Amino acid sequence: MNEKTYNEVLDERSPKVKQLYWSIAFGLQDVDRLKPSKYMVELTTEHIDGKKTYKEVKDNITSYYSKDKNISNREKEDDEVSLAIYEILSDKAFRFDYLTYKN
To answer: How far is residue 58's CA from residue 84's CA, in Å, rounded to a whole number?
Structure first.
């Protein structure tokens, strides 16, 4: 199966935009009754506040799940999908609007 790889998030946007993107990512997850872990919420808050870059958030999540084997696969998947949604939203080629959705 071919996986779409998105450009790594390099553009650290304003706190307002980062908050919006994380809210969209978590909201899209909530549609399927999926929730980010408490750790993910802590990391995203630090990202929004400018204490961590997106890359640090991603690296922290990867490290967290590679170390602790007692965490459910669902929690891991929920957090990884949130990261992927944020990456998609941050990709300058992606537009979150009606025409993009329609196509």
So the answer is: 10
Domain boundaries, the chain: 35-93
Q: Tens of pLDDT along 15-40?
A: 999 999 999 999 999 888 889 999 99
Can you tell me whether residue 14 is helix, strand or coil?
A: coil
* pTM, 2 dp: 0.77
Cβ-contact 48, 15 below 8 angstroms: yes
Spatial separation of the C-alpha atoms in residues 21 and 88, rounded to whole Å: 9
- As a whole number of angstroms, the distance between CA 103 and CA 100 comes to 5
Give the count of beta carbons closer than 10 Å to the beta carbon of residue 99: 7
